[in-house]
Design a protein that fits this description.
single chain; mainly alpha; Cytochrome C Oxidase, Chain I; 2 helices; rod-shaped; mitochondrion inner membrane; transmembrane helix
Length: about 70
């Protein structure tokens, strides 16, 4: 039973490292990249003045009353 802690710790350290790298890769390719593509697609056709005019007409702003 000599060096049992050292052997088990080495195994657990390598296991924890690979699990964390796997989780990071899954998050990057499963969440972050699709989110970046969705934002890019949204802002490709986004017109801020049109959005501002719609909010202004709805009465959202106090400093810019509806026309």
């Amino acid at each position: 039973m000599r060096r049992l802690l050292a052997r088990r710790m080495k195994l657990h350290l390598f296991g924890a490292f690979f699990v964390s790298v796997g989780c990071a890769a899954l998050y990057k390719f499963g969440v972050a990249e699709p989110r970046k593509r969705a934002y890019a697609e949204f802002y490709k056709n986004y017109d801020p003045m049109k959005d501002f005019e719609a909010m202004r007409a709805a009465g959202v702003f106090e400093s810019a009353p509806p026309k």
